TrEMBL record:
Pfam families: PaaX, PaaX_C, PaaX_M. Residues 117-188 form the Transcriptional repressor PaaX-like central Cas2-like domain. It comes from Micromonospora haikouensis. This is PaaX family transcriptional regulator. Residues 30-94 form the Transcriptional repressor PaaX-like N-terminal domain. Residues 201-289 form the Transcriptional repressor PaaX-like C-terminal domain. GO terms for biological process: DNA-templated transcription. Signal peptide: none annotated.
């Protein structure tokens, strides 16, 4: 099912020094490479032989040429760092990439786990940018979408949650003098056809995304729990379930349950994601270790599959580099 938002808005390129690959419809070789390295090397930033990365990507359907091109481009973008292991080349996540990915993983899990009480107020971000500043407008829209906002009207975006000081400062940097932020309750109107703030989100579309996720992954649970998914299949499934689930915090940014239909499937989707992602961690890690061992000179420490609990606890990240 296609996303109701453009990929540029979900994964914005906001001009920061590190540019992680954008998510695309289907499998992006760079995106799959980053997901694989994040899922199994993030905690220790272990370096993997380039041939092992190519072999793992081949199991995900990426050609040898496509895999080598993806690795080269990620290195040029500062996402990967290259080194030599004897006569072999090896790559690992850069410190900045590891820190960003760890923070992103924590955000994905935390934003769908914690129930946030709602005080009935809305945060409104209003902005006005002339037509010739279209790139700046796209960057602002992308950041607002990433922060969980949605457009109620053109140039007026809303969220049920308060804007953090850090996010407020970043938006001010993007559009100095062009943004106004305020927070308040909706005033009841007698006029027919007024638009409720929650209508900024297409609730029916979000629900269909949840239902598609539940239909796709629920039948797999018995095989996950019985250990019947192993090897490359475990790695592929774990990568796919993460790449699919990571969109939900943007699609449904902890919208208050009192504004949503009864039986909202957020919790069921979260529990299903954790069951698949965590349940496949051990067999997927074994397979990654086995593939790397074919191309390495001896043991490869630092390969470890993290769980949703690790992500939530913030135990997977490298510290960001010193300024």
């Amino acid at each position: 099912m296609a996303s109701p938002f453009s990929i540029e808005e979900i994964y914005p390129d906001d001009g920061r020094p590190l540019r992680l690959p954008r998510r695309q419809a289907g499998n992006s070789p760079q995106g799959v490479a980053v997901t694989l390295l994040a899922d199994y090397t993030l905690r220790a930033r272990a370096a993997l032989p380039s041939a092992a990365i190519v072999a793992l990507l081949a199991e995900a359907g990426v050609s040898t040429a496509g895999a080598r091109t993806a690795i080269s481009r990620l290195a040029r973008r500062g996402v990967l760092e290259g080194s030599r292991q004897g006569r072999r080349s090896a790559y690992r996540l850069s410190r900045l990439a590891a820190a960003n990915l760890a923070a992103g993983g924590n955000w994905i899990v935390a934003s769908t786990t914690t129930a946030v009480p709602w005080d009935g107020r809305w945060t409104i971000v209003a902005f006005s940018l002339p037509q010739e500043r279209s790139a700046q407008r796209r960057a602002l829209r992308g950041q607002l979408r990433w922060l969980g906002y949605a457009p109620l009207y053109d140039g007026l975006w809303i969220s049920p949650h308060d804007l953090t000081p850090k996010a407020r400062a970043h938006l001010a940097e993007l559009t100095p003098g062009a943004v106004t932020v305020f927070r308040g309750r909706q005033a009841a109107l007698d006029a027919i056809g007024h638009r409720a703030p929650v209508d900024a989100w297409d609730i029916d579309v979000i629900s269909r995304h949840y239902q598609a996720f539940l239909r796709r992954w629920t039948p797999l649970l018995p095989r996950v729990r019985s250990g019947r998914i192993d090897g490359a299949a475990a790695v592929r499934a774990r990568t796919e379930v993460m790449d699919t689930y990571r969109r939900f915090p943007v699609l449904d940014p902890q919208l208050p349950l009192e504004l949503l239909p009864q039986g909202w499937p957020r919790q069921r989707a979260r529990e299903l994601f954790a069951a698949v992602y965590d349940g496949l961690a051990a067999p997927a890690e074994r397979h990654v270790r086995a593939v790397v061992a074919r191309f390495a000179d001896g043991a490869q420490p630092g390969i470890a599959a993290h769980t949703t609990a690790d992500l939530l606890a913030g135990e997977c990240g490298a510290a960001p580099p010193a300024p």
